[in-house]
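From the methods appendix. Each design record in this collection lists the tokenized structure first, followed by the designed amino acid sequence. Records were kept in a plain field format so they could be parsed without special tools. The example shown here is representative of the layout used throughout.

RECORD:
FOLD TOKENS (675 positions):
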């Protein structure tokens, strides 16, 4: 293995290892991949195959993460059309992706051009995507998709991808550092020099808890910053680590653009597709489970108008500002409103909405035709669900929720970040040697076809691996710079951990204010983010939340406390989450002040706009951004005291077809990497 394990004092004698409580382990390697989801494993697998085998993977939990532990009614993978006579092309698919607004054209073209290559690699690894008897991978239409490009291996498509890619990585003997939490990215704001990690297996040991990685390249595959939110459908244990990247100087892009939708609370799972199409009953209770009422019925004069919109939520699961006025997203608004009032919301598959018998003749044509073709006009929503999608029933039953006898608690949840870290066409950020792949990278815009995230993660990790293998084979950067950055990072993180480990009832400052547990601070911050930076955004609330986050960041050292070393991970995770919240909330505030129009999965309060109904508070008044409106990309950079913003036009789709002989010559000479 080309990884050398060194003692910091021997490698860097001027750093004075004794100041860090003893020896700090140091690993030196060309490329470190952070994260073991589908994008991270693919990056490692491709790098090895391309000849760069001086690599290692770092993860806080190799079996954690969104790719392995999430799914949906029918989890979608988006790719080029590969069946039938319907015309499609790389250019057409790129145009579809580009039309999602605020999407850079070069990234859209890459995702289209490599979609077939990445898809068939997964097929060869054993991901069970279905094909017909002639070998055609027949597709279906998904949201924002004009073709039938979507396919699925079932509810666990991304899990299958991750498992097959992990098998390939382990067969190659690529080293995986499990239980290793990244707590600092070593950067001079121009290039990356390495990482500082907390070894979760040695958190109790002052001598061994910190680990340094010195490297030429980092491929960041940490997923979206889910830990910022309380109402979240990301799997438990997935938090993201975007704050550390911002702190290192990486720019954010399209940070305002998220995707929200209704999901169950325990377990965390999207209630999309059939879960809505069988027309469950919605009701709410007080915190103790009393005072049950069907709150949707208060909003609709005709219960069948309500049921038609519930049905449409199956197709139109993400909250969409365009579908609020008279559309299915008003259901999300009403669920959010109940939760805002401190009530709990449930889906009930035991009874029909309004507790009456279902009259098929009163349903709208779309719902009636769908249920009729499915032969699903049974007495209860549960019977309809069991008939149409038995695995959807079994999923919850295996996790302790029997939909035949129990209600399912839900809320409006954060589901996917369409923005993230800004990257170029090789998925390299503005920090040299720092690449971002998967959800943490900002390759999407305001809207995206369902399933495009899985394709984007595979394409981005291939592109990063190609560039590193071709252009970034040198050894790590300047040793003296690394030494200074490492010394500073170790000292700061050691001071934070030592202070957090002091008795929690000791005074934090001269005023003698008691300190607060990391878990409590985190819970408070996450709840605030869901209320102020979720699907419903009010400028005044965002500004107030931003000031609160800033205060918590500035006072973290004096405030945070933990019970023992096993909770150290929470301190460093909280720090990352607060930095992420600060940058994301600042982006939302900046967007509101410059544009303020509702779009995508976010509704911005605008007193001059309209409300879905007079009975709703003024918080829900909004103005839609017009179709074809501004197509400027917002980029964010964390400065010393504030977040700095620039707005630029999208990078256009690259030009027309190129002449083969010229492309061949550039490819032979390696000049295609520069274009």
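DESIGN:
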């Amino acid at each position: 293995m080309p990884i050398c394990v060194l003692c910091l004092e021997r490698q860097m004698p001027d750093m004075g290892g004794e100041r860090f409580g003893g020896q700090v382990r140091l690993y030196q390697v060309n490329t470190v991949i952070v994260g073991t989801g589908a994008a991270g494993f693919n990056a490692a697998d491709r790098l090895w195959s391309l000849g760069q085998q001086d690599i290692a993977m770092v993860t806080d939990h190799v079996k954690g993460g969104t790719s392995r532990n999430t799914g949906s009614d029918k989890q979608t993978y988006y790719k080029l059309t590969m069946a039938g006579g319907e015309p499609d092309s790389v250019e057409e698919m790129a145009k579809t992706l580009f039309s999602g607004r605020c999407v850079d054209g070069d990234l859209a073209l890459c995702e289209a051009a490599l979609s077939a290559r990445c898809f068939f690699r997964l097929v060869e690894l054993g991901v069970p995507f279905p094909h017909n008897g002639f070998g055609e991978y027949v597709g279906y239409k998904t949201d924002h998709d004009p073709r039938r490009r979507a396919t699925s291996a079932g509810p666990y498509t991304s899990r299958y991808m991750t498992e097959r890619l992990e098998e390939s990585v382990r067969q190659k003997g690529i080293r995986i550092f499990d239980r290793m939490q990244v707590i600092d990215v070593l950067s001079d704001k121009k290039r990356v020099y390495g990482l500082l990690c907390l070894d979760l297996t040695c958190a109790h040991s002052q001598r061994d808890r910190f680990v340094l990685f010195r490297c030429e390249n980092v491929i960041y595959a940490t997923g979206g910053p889910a830990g910022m939110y309380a109402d979240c459908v990301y799997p438990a244990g997935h938090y993201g680590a975007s704050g550390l990247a911002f702190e290192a100087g990486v720019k954010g892009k399209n940070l305002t653009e998220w995707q929200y939708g209704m999901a169950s609370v325990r377990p965390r799972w999207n209630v999309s597709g059939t879960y809505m199409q069988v027309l469950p009953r919605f009701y709410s209770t007080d915190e103790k489970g009393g005072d049950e009422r069907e709150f949707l019925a208060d909003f609709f004069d005709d219960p069948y108008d309500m049921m038609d919109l519930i049905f449409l939520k199956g197709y139109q699961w993400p909250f969409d500002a365009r579908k609020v006025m008279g559309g299915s997203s008003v259901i999300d608004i009403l669920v959010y409103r109940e939760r805002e009032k401190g009530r709990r919301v449930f889906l009930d598959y035991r009874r029909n909405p309004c507790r009456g018998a279902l009259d098929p003749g009163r349903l709208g044509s779309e719902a009636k035709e769908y249920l009729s073709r499915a032969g699903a006009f049974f007495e209860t929503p549960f019977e309809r669900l069991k008939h149409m999608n038995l695995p959807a029933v079994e999923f919850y039953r295996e996790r302790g929720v029997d939909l035949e006898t129990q209600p399912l608690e839900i809320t409006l949840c954060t589901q996917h970040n369409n923005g993230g870290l800004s990257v170029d066409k090789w998925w390299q950020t503005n920090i040299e040697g720092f690449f971002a792949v998967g959800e943490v990278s900002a390759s999407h815009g305001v809207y995206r076809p369902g399933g495009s995230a899985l394709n984007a993660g595979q394409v981005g990790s291939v592109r990063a691996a190609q560039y590193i293998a071709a252009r970034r084979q040198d050894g790590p950067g300047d040793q003296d710079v690394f030494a200074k950055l490492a010394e500073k990072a170790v000292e700061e993180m050691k001071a934070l951990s030592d202070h957090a480990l002091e008795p929690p009832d000791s005074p934090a400052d001269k005023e003698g204010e008691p300190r607060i547990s990391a878990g409590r601070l985190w819970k408070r911050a996450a709840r605030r983010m869901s209320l102020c930076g979720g699907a419903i955004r009010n400028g005044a609330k965002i500004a107030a939340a931003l000031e609160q986050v800033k205060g918590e960041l500035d006072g973290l050292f004096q405030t945070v406390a933990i019970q023992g070393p096993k909770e150290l991970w929470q301190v460093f995770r909280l720090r990352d989450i607060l930095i992420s919240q600060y940058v994301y909330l600042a982006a939302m505030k900046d967007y509101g002040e410059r544009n303020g129009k509702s779009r995508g999965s976010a509704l911005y309060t605008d007193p001059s706009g309209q409300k879905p109904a007079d009975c709703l508070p003024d918080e829900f008044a909004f103005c839609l951004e017009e179709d074809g409106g501004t197509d400027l990309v917002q980029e964010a950079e964390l400065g010393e005291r504030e977040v700095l913003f620039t707005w630029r036009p999208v990078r256009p789709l690259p030009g027309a077809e190129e002449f083969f002989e010229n492309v061949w010559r550039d490819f032979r000479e390696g000049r295609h990497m520069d274009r």
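APPENDIX NOTE: The mean pLDDT is 93.
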